[in-house]
Amino acid sequence: QVQLVESGGGLVQAGGSLRLSCAASGRTFSSYYMGWFRQAPGKERELVAGIGWSGSSPLYADSVKGRFTISRDNAKNTVYLQMNSLKPEDTAVYYCAARRLSRPQYEYWGQGTQVTVSS
């Protein structure tokens, strides 16, 4: 069982930055693939970024490439999402999620943190 708690959301002006954090419980954090998702009102949830246990070869949605950076610190059981050059269309609830490497679907989810970007 993994419990995930996000933090770092808030209100920011367009062009600004935020860093989201996701603290995970459990001693096997490093064995999980971690992802950040977001869901805007009236839209489906979408994968924003994902990262494997070593931190190499992260993946990003096309809409955030070059602006967002996902990273993880396995010693701190934490995954981060650095968001730069934020746009109003980045406004959403952001969720952290985890899955075991052998599983195709994400198994554990955080409660979400609101990110609002004003124009």
Element order: H for helix, E for strand: EEEEEEEEEEE
How much is the average pLDDT?
A: 95
Q: Count the DSSP helices.
A: 0
Percent in strands: over 45%
Cα(first) to Cα(last) distance is 40 Å
Which structural category fits the helices and strands?
mainly beta
Radius of gyration, in angstroms, nearest whole number: 13 Å
Helix content: under 10%
Shape estimate: globular
Low confidence ranges: none
- Count of individual beta strands: 11
Q: What's the story with the biggest beta sheet? A: 7 strands, mixed
Task: Please explain how this structure is put together.
- There is one protein chain.
- The chain has 119 residues and is an all-beta fold.
- Helices cover 0% and strands 50% of the residues.
- The protein is built from no helices and eleven strands.
- Strands 2, 4, 5, 6, 9, 10 and 11 form a seven-stranded mixed sheet that branches.
- A hairpin with a 6-residue loop joins strand 4 and strand 5 (46-51).
- The model has no long low-confidence stretch (mean pLDDT 95).
Question: Topology of this protein?
Answer:
Elements: E1 4-7, E2 10-13, E3 18-24, E4 32-39, E5 46-51, E6 59-60, E7 68-73, E8 78-83, E9 92-100, E10 108-109, E11 113-118
Parallel strand pairs: 2-11
Antiparallel strand pairs: 1-3, 3-8, 4-5, 4-9, 5-6, 7-8, 9-10, 9-11
